[in-house]
Design goal:
This protein is an alpha+beta fold and about 90 residues long. About 30% of the residues lie in helices and about 35% in strands. A hairpin with a 2-residue loop joins strand 1 and strand 2.
Length: about 90
């Protein structure tokens, strides 16, 4: 693929993830510890990958088995990977 095609694919993927984010952000933000949602690159062991994902930012991670089913964040929504990233508390100065 050439650079222009790669850029178009990235733009299309980003727009799709943004659409999914807009459709589901209210539901995601209502879950415990969720402080934000964004489009970003998935992280594995703290390292960014080349995979775009819907990033769900939490103040702290909680093991899945300690959450009720309705509190859990799915691994995928509408074929979009979800990456839960711990960022701590957000505060304005």
């Amino acid at each position: 693929m050439n650079q222009e095609a790669d850029n178009q694919d990235l733009k299309s993927t980003t727009e799709h993830i943004m659409s999914v984010m807009q459709a589901h952000k209210g539901e995601l933000l209502s879950k415990p510890n969720v402080v934000g949602v964004a489009v970003g690159f998935q992280q594995i062991d703290g390292e960014s990958t080349q995979t775009l994902a819907l990033v769900v930012m939490v103040d702290h991670k909680v093991p899945q088995n300690l959450l009720k089913p309705e509190q859990q964040i799915p691994a995928m929504i509408e074929d979009v990977p979800i990456d839960v990233q711990e960022i701590g508390k957000i505060s304005a100065y």
